[in-house]
Design goal:
heterodimer; A: MetI-like fold; B: about 300 residues; MetI-like fold; 16 helices; transmembrane helix (chain B); MetI-like_sf (chain B); MetI-like (chain B); membrane (chain B)
């Protein structure tokens, strides 16, 4: 009875893997995989020597590192703060509110963020004008300098609450006696967070850190497609995934796009393997 | 409760303020969008709409609901969510049940076969071309079938099934129940929390997913609501929408008033709210399930 499901996996996950071969072909629409001429590494060479290559690589790496550096600690911080709240109802409300954006699609979030930042009486512009910080509305989503900030900020805003669930659960599992003992020894809340909470949830943090590192070339796809609709942003917004999409679907360069995609897949697997090795090392030093 | 020192009190106050601020920053954009959708578009254009509608009206929603494409897209999304969730959860559970049975020969190899696909994939372009060669473009099923088996969910199911007492299935087998019967009559009913969680996540995924429809579907009658919303946000088809809605079935008097009050911004916000509401209405009630679900999901690592 597992057979039908395995056949499904074979068809929809393994057959496309065969399709990566098209990165080494000049894929022709009517020839299909079998009748297109082989061209070796021509498309890889074209990708590496294209001026887009460095822009795309830089954006991919910078955006990933920003997401890792700022987006990763954010939910931990949120969990630590939520844990300090004594009023249970208040805590529940804040938590429920903080999950909300996770359950909405990027399209909706994009629409709402776009409305907030718009020059057409968007709330952010209205606020900044009232505070006299700016003198005329800024079109935030068409200024390249602001894009990385908006992208990373929106991502954190959307996922922080949901990601905090795991950390909150880890914190809830800590033995309360530890805190009592620390309090008797004169540790304030701040010291307790530093000396008990953080060390106790360290294993969870490390696991998620490793998963995040393995994911590093996934700088984003949906969020960038949604937020970077203005072509002015292309120099700062194009990452490997959006580049593959653009080349493949908008320019119909299927083989070239597949080559860029395959390059990313290979590097990602390498990073995943490296992260896994690091995991084993850290795992052994942990216990 | 322990006594708080002065420093702790400062910390407490600081955290409460920060959390209030966070709650505000999270909610306000949605609240503001709701308010704009309930305000006359012409009035919104004057600026200053923040917390309350200044010139309340349902005109924006009237135009949205008159637009047949939005109703159709809503229906497609609903169909997709229901059928996609049922099929995916059922098939994934069947696979997980099979792989949790010790008498299945070579189940280790089948596991590896499945897990590999979590790390390697053909990528966007080959998948697209394959589905096209299958002739699945522009069909409803292209939204559901390729993703029907979720290996990630399968692992969660399987972990849960392995934790159930083995005697349970055995005794049903002895009583003459076949495997499908065991799964449907015995295993699934006692797996309530996992089934609920995974159904919830799958349903949210199907309701929110817009990208696959944007590349696989051209037929305007098969576009789900999120994909339509994305198209509306990116183009000027709102204006057509407005013209279409008022052109066909409104009395002359109505037409005049709608043209005067509805703008593309107010219309976009009303459409956004229509796409948002179903989830906002249910998710707080499902909180206990998804909290549990996230934990099951993270423990398996």
């Amino acid at each position: 009875m597992v057979l039908p499901a395995l056949v499904f996996i074979f068809i929809f996950s393994y057959l496309p893997m065969y399709g990566v071969l098209m990165a080494f072909q000049d894929y022709q629409l009517f020839g299909g995989f079998f009748n297109s001429p082989w061209v070796g590494t021509k498309h890889f060479a074209a990708f590496f020597s294209s001026p887009d290559f460095w822009t795309v690589m830089r954006n991919t790496i910078v955006i990933s590192l920003l997401k890792l550096g700022i987006g990763f600690p954010a939910p931990i911080l949120l969990a630590l703060m939520l844990n300090e709240i004594r009023a249970l109802l208040f805590k529940r409300i804040i938590q429920t509110v903080s999950y909300l954006p996770h359950f909405l699609s990027w399209v909706i979030v994009g629409g709402v963020v776009g409305s907030m930042l718009s020059t057409d009486n968007g709330s952010v512009n209205m606020l900044l004008l009232k505070l006299n910080l700016i003198h005329e509305p800024v079109s935030f989503l068409s200024v390249p300098e602001y894009f990385w900030g908006i992208l990373v900020g929106t991502g954190i805003w959307k996922e922080m609450g949901f990601a905090a669930i795991v950390y909150l659960a880890a914190i809830a599992g800590i033995d309360p006696h530890l805190y009592e003992a620390a309090a008797i020894d004169g540790a304030g809340r701040f010291k307790q967070i530093q000396l008990i909470t953080l060390p106790c949830i360290r294993p969870v943090i490390i696991i998620f850190m490793i998963l995040a590192v393995g994911n590093i070339l996934n700088a984003g796809f949906e969020d960038i497609l949604i937020l970077a609709t203005n072509p002015v942003l292309r120099d700062v917004s194009d990452v490997i995934d959006t580049y593959v999409y653009r080349m493949g679907f908008l320019n119909n360069r299927y083989s070239y796009a597949a080559a860029a995609g395959l390059f990313k897949a290979i590097v990602s697997v390498g990073l995943l393997a490296a992260a896994n090795r690091a995991a084993r090392k850290m795992g052994s030093s942990l216990w | 409760m322990m006594k708080l020192s002065a420093g702790d009190k400062v910390l407490q106050v600081f955290i409460y303020i920060l959390m209030l601020l966070l709650g505000f920053v999270t909610l306000y954009p949605f609240w503001n969008s709701l308010v704009i959708s309930l305000n006359s578009g012409a009035d919104t254009a004057l600026g200053g709409i923040t917390f309350w509608p200044r010139s309340p009206t349902l005109d924006n929603y009237e135009v949205v609901f008159r637009d047949s494409r939005i109703g159709q897209a809503f229906l497609i999304s609903a169909l997709r969510t229901v059928s996609g969730t049922l099929l995916s959860v059922l098939f994934t559970a069947v696979l997980a049940y099979g792989l949790s049975r010790h008498e299945l020969m070579g189940r280790k190899y089948y596991m590896v076969f499945c897990v590999v696909t979590m790390y390697f994939s053909g990528g966007l372009i080959p998948t697209f071309l394959l589905l096209r060669e299958f002739g699945m473009m522009d069909t409803f099923w292209v939204l559901i079938i390729p993703g029907m088996i979720s290996v990630y969910n399968m692992i969660i199911f399987r972990t849960f099934f392995l934790g159930l007492p083995a005697g349970l299935a055995e005794s049903a087998r002895i009583d003459g129940c076949n495997h499908i019967g065991v799964l449907i009559r015995i295993i699934l009913p006692i797996s309530g929390p996992v089934v609920a969680t995974l159904s919830l996540f799958t349903a949210v995924y199907h309701w929110n997913e817009w990208f696959s429809a944007s590349i696989y579907i051209n037929n305007p009658n098969l576009i789900p609501i999120q994909t339509l919303l994305k198209q509306i946000l990116n183009s000027n088809i709102v204006t057509d929408q407005l013209l279409q809605a008022i052109g066909t079935n409104a009395a002359a008097q109505d037409r005049l008033s709608l043209v005067q009050t509805v703008t593309s911004k107010s219309l976009i916000m009303a459409t956004t709210m229509v796409a948002t509401l179903p989830i906002v209405l249910v998710y707080p009630f499902l909180q206990k399930y998804f909290v549990k679900g996230v934990l099951i999901g993270s423990i398996k690592e």
